[in-house]
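User: I'm new to structure prediction. If I give you an amino acid sequence, what do you actually give back? Let's try with this one:
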Amino acid sequence: MKEIKSILVANRSEIAIRVLRGASELGLRTVAIFSNEDRFALHRFKADESYLVGAGKKPLQAYLDIDDIIRIAKENDVDAIHPGYGFLSENPEFADACAKAGIAFIGPKGAVMRTLGNKVAAREVAIKAGVPVVPATGALPGDIEEVKRMAAEIGYPLMLKASWGGGGRGMRAIETEADLAPMIDVARREAAAAFGNDEVYLEKLIRRARHVEVQVLGDPARQPGAPVRARLLGAAAQPEGSNVPRRPTMDETKRTELCESALRPGARSKLLPRRHGGIPLRRRHGQFYFIEVNPRIQVEHTVTEEVTGVDIVKAQIRVTEGSASALTTCCPARTRSPSTATPCSAGSPPKTRRTTSPPTTARSRCIAPPPAAASAWMRARPIRAPSSPRTTTPCW
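Assistant: Good question. You get back a string of structure tokens that encode the predicted 3D arrangement of the chain. For your 396 residues, that looks like this:
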């Protein structure tokens, strides 16, 4: 893989700003896209360059316009595209389009996404890998009578989920058969609008469960057939149906068992040798069950960064470049144990994030001092001056 010198972020708002900051601190030229409604949004002014995408389309559809995103990238000599989370981040057609255009996609290959990005297919991988799963159906057909039969086999209450994407889009609790048809219609529309695919499925609802996410970074230097060498980056727990991260409460034996189980689906599907991803599991009464694989950066990645001192965005870029030392240099020893990290109280998700690069004369910005554990690996790659002067000076 050639060295990455420029990155386009195919997303908007907070995650776009997060990726732009990481790329900027590595000295990369940054490119943002924006819909017409986002023409005054902050993320477009944080990049070296920004371009209108999906002209004439509604906001959501603009950011789902694969052809126009690729056009912008090619016309502006972009080396790599980071999808962020949501939108096209788990769309295999987008990953394939990037590869066809000769642009590096900062995420798994399309073939891996077709297996892991689809929750139904990912369950099959987990089952073959010997990981416990929650009872669920396959993708629901259009025949509502057949759907009712499939639901009855599992038993109510059920959780209706979108097969693609995440963030709770298309997710509905189904208490009785009377709720099934109207909820499916709503969930399909919501999933189609958010991810461009209306496929949904049913899963047994487990009440009062904790949602635990294990984040894993794969080693691009791994040779075919060699043992998987993956660094566990951390885990965050949250109440079912909530995106408020909390500290996982479990002993080391259970933590080790959970993390080893999380590695197996990724290793079997060849996710780990290539990219970073999150593997959520559901835990109740000391037992845990596989839910899905998110082959992209996690919304909760900030918790992992606080615990480990690792800048995950920068690590993703290094992994995509094929750096042989991506794991050892991007993943320093954990500076704080998850058991001693400050937990987040309910309703108060973390709103701050440390930077991992000191200010430079090339790009002055308002940032905090880097954590000692993370600053060493940043020195391995000197910050380059931008190829063209900025029109604005960001204050991160």
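You can read the tokens as a compact description of the fold. Here is one thing that stands out. Residues 135-204 form a domain with the Dna Ligase; domain 1 fold (CATH 3.30.1490.20).
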